[in-house]
Amino acid sequence: MDILFDRVVQTLYGQFRLIWGDDGMYVELADQFEGQANGWLGAAVPTQVELIMARPHGGSSVRIESWEIEPAVDDSWDDIVEVSFTVTPGATVEWGVFDGVGGQLPISAGSYRLRAGARGRDSADDLPDQYLLQLWPAARSADAVLRTTSKDAAYWNATWGARG
């Protein structure tokens, strides 16, 4: 396992992205979740993955790990979802927030599965919410909701997910 990113991210509108390709930063939010069951980790647009955090403004903890094989599900996370994405050959993967790109991530071309775990979504106004993003090589498959215990994740799953 390699740690690709581990820091508190200052967000605007609670949006954190992995971005590659020519579509740029500004893709309609609804398009990110088209046909998905979950509503807080969008991967329907082929050139980015959108994480909707509970804290609309301020700092949230984000850690990104790269695995060679699928890691075991960590049951200590309140909410867990999975999506698939493909990085095209020659693309540079960057991370960003609503208002800009933050930096590059060492993710090479290929097809991946991405699992997001979240803690503290319901207490985001009092304590920082936390996110763990784990990616590993895998064939594309439909997104999956593995666990939903927070009201915030349930809200987003009902609002942006379940529309497809």
Mind explaining what this structure looks like?
With 164 residues, this protein is mainly beta. The protein has a single domain (2-159), classed as Competence, DNA-entry nuclease inhibitor, ComJ (Substrate Binding Domain Of DNAk, Chain A, domain 1, Sandwich). The protein contains two helices and eleven strands, in the order E-E-H-E-E-E-E-E-E-E-E-E-H. The protein has helices at residues 29-32, 151-159; strands at residues 2-12, 15-19, 41-42, 48-52, 57-66, 79-87, 93-97, 100-105, 110-119, 130-137, 144-147. Strands 1-5-10-9-6-11 form a six-stranded mixed sheet, with no helix packed on it. It has a five-stranded antiparallel sheet with strand order 3-4-2-7-8. A hairpin with a 5-residue loop joins strand 3 and strand 4 (48-52). The longest helix has 9 residues, at 151-159. The termini are far apart.
Q: Distance N terminus to C terminus?
A: 33 Å
- The count of domains is 1
How many DSSP helices?
2
Global mean pLDDT: 89
Q: Which class do the helix and strand fractions yield?
A: mainly beta
Q: Order of strands across the biggest sheet? A: 1-5-10-9-6-11
Which CATH architecture? Sandwich
CATH class: Mainly Beta
From N to C, what is the helix and strand string? EEHEEEEEEEEEH
